[in-house]
Amino acid sequence: MIQRIQSLLLLFSTLLSALLLYLPVYELISVPDNVSVVTRFTIMSSALLVILNGGIGILSFFAIFLYRTRNIQIRMCNLALLLSCVLIGLLFFVADTMSTSMNQKIHYLYGSYIPLIQVLIIFLATRAIKRDENLIRSADRLR
Hints:
With 143 residues, the protein is mainly alpha-helical. Helices cover 64% and strands 10% of the residues. The chain is built from four helices and three strands, in the order αββααβα. Strands 2-1-3 form a three-stranded antiparallel β-sheet, covered by helices on one side. Helix 1 packs antiparallel against helix 2, helix 1 (5-20) packs antiparallel against helix 4 and helix 2 runs antiparallel to helix 3 (70-98). The protein is elongated, with a radius of gyration of 19 Å.
């Protein structure tokens, strides 16, 4: 059942989790003595962010193969959705605490938008799984 739309969405979410490990998330621009110093950060700089991102990727990947037990698949997707929201919150919290100095400015890069895309993808996968569950329940009523 790999050809189902929710399986493809969950696979895409897993690939985004792997991609997020290598993309820069934000950069700090320091201006000491009129010399601009730019430091780029990935989520590899924080162990907690790596663990959360790995959890999202693993849950999304294992949820693909639970197509026979859709209730557990929905729970795993909901847990991945929750972890993704926590990742977004911690990502911006860590970025804001890094730029506490007045001479530093934070600039969010394209990697910071990947968790937002993951939330949307996992939400759509959950909706598709629920639609399959409702279809099977309606078919069982007809028997």
